[in-house]
Amino acid sequence: MGGFDVIDPRFEALYHRALSVLEADHRVAYIGLSGSVARGTADPWSDLDIEVVAHAEHHASFLADWPKWLSLITPTVFARTPLAPFIINTVTIEGLTLDIAVWSGKAMEFSVSSHYTVGLLSGARFDKVGDALEYAVAEQLRGLAGPFVSLIQREEHVRHLTGVPHLIGLITTVFLAETELPQPAKHWNSTFTEEQRQAIAALPPVRAMRDDVIAFGLAAARLLVDRARPLYPRFGLEWPAALAAITAARLRSELGIETEEWLH
To answer: What is the pTM of this model?
Structure first.
């Protein structure tokens, strides 16, 4: 991996065009690369990230003018600030993705986060992977006893699918506890082992149908439980046996599903 040498060559011309336009604006103090190109970790599928530092007294006016100076850099088919008002996300007419962060006074420095974020619906963050593991297991069991049952009984199968990324996030937290590696950013293949990735790939396909939702949900839960339980002694944790028992009882009474073989 690298920088401009590995990405679409049109990005370099786009960057120099941005330099030409923005260096001529008296409100701008600095323009530079950010993201993977700046770090030298880009690959052929990376996009272009630029950071612009405006003089503090001109930051508000410069940011407000972003549609004007962006149009001088490149025509776009998409240009918005959906994530934060100081970040402009764009897609050019050539299909290139360009993101521009506009800072006031100086650029913010980011470091690789040492936190573990568990699941996509809860967004819980932990400093220690053992704590993240404990939360992931409890969240899986809670979800199995609650939303899993209620959404199936209501036949809200489309709604159920929105939770799939959350479940995958819980499982990958267990995987991180197995290896005790930090949480990955964009590139996951270098963090999770081939065996771990294959375990995810082996889960049954899920569609917005009752049988498919049940099959996927139970398979995902069993994968998490089977792999998490042996890790608890390593991190000095006590297995939530009471919650597991209640979850198994609820699955039996509400859905007629027996899980005691693995859920106890």
So the answer is: 0.82
Average pLDDT over residues 64-85: 93
Helix (H) or strand (E) holding 98: strand 97-104
Residue 93 and residue 78: Cα distance in Å, rounded? 9
**What local confidence, expressed as pLDDT, does residue 110 receive?**
54
87 touches 78 (CB < 8 A)? no
pLDDT digits (tens, 9 = 90+) for 154-180: 999 999 999 999 999 999 999 999 999
Which three-class secondary structure state does DSSP give residue 56? helix
**Whose CA is closest to 202, among 179, 178, 220?**
220
* Sequence-distant (≥ 6) Cβ neighbours of residue 29 within 8 angstroms: 53, 54, 55, 105
Question: Cβ(121)–Cβ(163) under 8 Å?
Answer: yes
In this prediction, residues 128-156 reach a mean pLDDT of: 96
Which SS3 state, helix, strand or coil, does residue 80 take? strand
160: nearest Cα among 144, 172, 176, 171: 144
Q: Where are the alpha helices (DSSP H) in the chain?
A: 10-23, 35-39, 59-64, 66-73, 129-145, 147-153, 157-161, 164-179, 194-201, 210-228, 241-255
Overall residue count recorded for the chain in this entry: 264
Number of other residues whose CB lies within 10 A of the CB of residue 180: 11
Residue 173, classed as helix, strand or coil, is helix
| AA identity, residue 187 | H
Cα–Cα distance between 203 and 218 in angstroms, integer?
10
With 90 as the cut, is the pLDDT of residue 78 above it? yes
